[in-house]
Design goal:
The chain is 82% helix and 0% strand. It contains four helices and no strands. α3 (61-76) packs antiparallel against α4. It is flat, with a radius of gyration of 20 Å.
Length: 99
Amino acid sequence: MTMLIYISIMAGVTYLIRMIPFTLFRKKIKSRFIQSVLYYIPYAVLSAMTFPAIFYSTDSTVTAAVGTVIAVILAYFKLPLTVVALAACVASLITGFFI
């Protein structure tokens, strides 16, 4: 029974989060500043959720940092996502052997 209550509360909160912007912003947003802020919100939220998970994914923060640095460098050179992910994993693994 308590599980059903938890699921109902989560469904209600999810619905409210999605419904509130539609009720508050009925007209088109004309402000360039607000449009630019709203444009970058998904990227900021994704970064806020991803980066802590990266540094707690291994037992050592050093190996996670090395993998992150390698991933950022390879992503800067616009390599495919699979190459970036595999290189970051391998770099983290190799660093773990030396620590």
